[in-house]
Amino acid sequence: MQSTPAAALDQPVISLRGATASLGSRPVLRGVDLTVRRGEVVALLGANGSGKSTAVRSVVGQVPLSSGELSLFGTDLKQFRAWSRIGYVPQRTTAASGVPATVREVVSSGRLARTRFGLLRKADRAAVERALALVDMESHADVSVNALSGGQHQRVLIARALAVEPELLIMDEPMAGVDLANQEVLANALREQVKAGSTVLLVLHELGPLEPLISRAVVLRDGCVVHDGPPPKAVGQHALPGHDHVHPHAAHDAEPLRTGLLS
Ligand SMILES: Nc1ncnc2c1ncn2[C@@H]1O[C@H](COP(=O)(O)OP(=O)(O)OP(=O)(O)O)[C@@H](O)[C@H]1O
């Protein structure tokens, strides 16, 4: 990870203020405020279509805001160039690009943002090996990505994002379609990253094995933030799939907090 001047440590890593964005003619973000501070692990939750992916895609500059403000590491998006400080794992993709490539080659491609002229030096190669080890894929390093299972693809994509040694890791539904054994490997990899001081923003459908790592949850509904605080605990009947969540701190007569977390 790069060293950061002390003054910059106080700046939020992500500051999104009053963000609005549309896809086609559809308003998808309708005034979203999202702050992620250094060392936090923030889960972005909400029902299908509530705007979670759009929010993180706007954070990484893939969806332009129609209005509002976004700064990364204290720098306005328009001036921000330090993309190698951010590792991004998009939603539902595979590590295979159609071009024959090994696991190590795909993970190495994640390191290119840190290199000059695309040349991997010793430290770069070491970072690639560390990333492979974090997701427990060293033994598959020379295997073609075309021969991997869905869960292994996800591990390779996460290793590709980790190879850049990001200060901020953004992952969009990293556990989607991943079996339990692979989920455990990913949860361990994330735990190591958090221990090393990374800041993390995760889009999640349910907290699952990542729950112990989450410091704060932001819940979206119809493109608006409806909760920003402690992660909701799915308990009893509400832990069953299909149930809306009731927040444990809500007043007795309060409306249930419908996160869509488990729907
Ligand atoms: N290219 C597009 N053009 C128009 N509408 C879109 C486009 N992509 C997504 N949408 C719509 O924008 C809304 C928000 O989508 P988004 O993917 O951000 O939601 P999400 O909360 O991440 O959902 P999911 O949990 O299903 O991934 C959805 O209603 C979706 O149908």
TrEMBL record:
Q: Which domain of life is it from?
A: Bacteria
Q: Which UniProt keywords apply?
A: ATP-binding, Nucleotide-binding, Transport
UniProt GO molecular function: ATP binding
Query: From start to end residue, where is composition biased (Basic and acidic residues)?
Result: 241-256
Where is region (Disordered) located?
A: 232-263
Q: Pfam families annotated for this entry?
A: ABC_tran
| Entry keyword annotation includes Amino-acid biosynthesis | no
Residue ranges constituting the ABC transporter domain according to the UniProt record: 14-247
What is the name of this protein?
ATP-binding cassette domain-containing protein
